[in-house]
Design brief:
alpha+beta, five-stranded antiparallel β-sheet, 8 helices, 10 strands, globular, kinase activity
Length: 299
């Protein structure tokens, strides 16, 4: 499944060649496809490791962010996060950086894995509170740590308005895009966030939240969107969760009405752009985005 222009071809033979050349100590371990997202293809390596390979060379920068910052953050967070163990170099068979991480047991957050959504929402709020409380350690909102989801809503109005127009054309018969656009405009009309800049995961959707056998939050994965910025957009993915989790999350972080409205505007923006960009290439991701928009409309 190709999602982006210039995407690199990856299969087991490519990963084997990289391991043989750069990590011979792991070359004999079993290898199994472990999923693929919008940015990376992944393979489980043996029982304890995970190989992540960016879909395009320009999507390798997040791996460098993770190597630099995640080991510093891990001791300060209440659940597990990825631990990088090898930085792979570009090679003729795969001309991009790649990486190996420790495997983290767990399953994606879903109705099948979470027993108590209110407790899960409270767990997620506790994680976000801890993350946002970590000292910036000299990091600034610049370069690789300056993603759009940590900035202001007004800077995104052009492409969000375009994405909403595409949504209206593609899914307007099934989604109330006029109301979604009004929620976007409501967020734009508010003053900017008075909060200071914090560390943000910036993509806390259910596929990045791993649940343990007890049904509670066990790990937060895929930190490729790690940024420094204003926290409003961090809360946007909570509309991917059932209402009980959303309410517990909001209460746990004591989010006021203005922050909640800005977060809702971010939720509209990210989901609408996902529908527009991936409509023809990634139907599963489009379904996730449409479900988020439906949750916003029904809240």
């Amino acid at each position: 499944m190709t999602l982006h222009e210039g995407e690199l071809a990856v299969d087991e033979s490519v990963v084997r060649a990289l391991l043989d050349d750069q990590c011979p100590e792991w070359a004999g371990l079993s290898l199994a496809r472990a999923g693929a997202g919008t940015e990376n293809t992944m393979y489980r390596l043996g029982d304890e490791l995970l190989v992540r390979l960016p879909r395009t060379p320009d999507r390798a920068a997040p791996l460098r962010k993770e190597r630099e910052w995640l080991p510093r953050m891990a001791p300060l967070l209440p659940c597990a996060i990825p631990a990088p163990v090898h930085a792979g170099a570009p090679a003729p068979v795969y001309p991009s950086e790649w990486a190996v991480y420790r495997w983290i047991d767990g399953v994606e957050a879903s109705p099948e894995s979470v027993r108590d959504w209110a407790a899960f929402g409270a767990d997620l709020a506790g994680f976000v509170r801890a993350l946002h409380g970590i000292d910036l350690m000299g990091a600034r909102r610049a370069g690789e740590l300056s993603w759009y989801r940590g900035g202001g809503l007004r800077d995104c109005d052009g492409w969000v308005t375009s994405a909403l127009a595409d949504c209206r054309r593609l899914a307007g018969a099934e989604l109330d895009v006029d109301t979604l656009e009004s929620y976007w405009c409501d967020g734009l009309a508010l003053p900017g966030s008075p909060a200071g800049q914090v560390w943000m995961h910036a993509d806390l959707k259910p596929t990045n939240l791993l649940v343990g056998a007890d049904g509670r939050l066990r790990a937060v994965i895929d930190w490729g969107s790690l940024t420094v910025g204003l926290p409003d957009a961090e809360h946007s993915t909570v509309w991917d969760l059932p209402a009980g989790a959303r309410h517990a999350y909001r209460e746990g972080l004591e989010l006021d009405d203005a922050t909640w409205m800005r977060a809702r505007a971010w939720a509209v923006a990210v989901a609408a752009s996902g529908v527009a960009y991936y409509w023809d290439t990634f139907p599963e991701f489009v379904a996730e985005c449409r479900a988020r928009l439906a949750n916003i409309l029904s809240a």
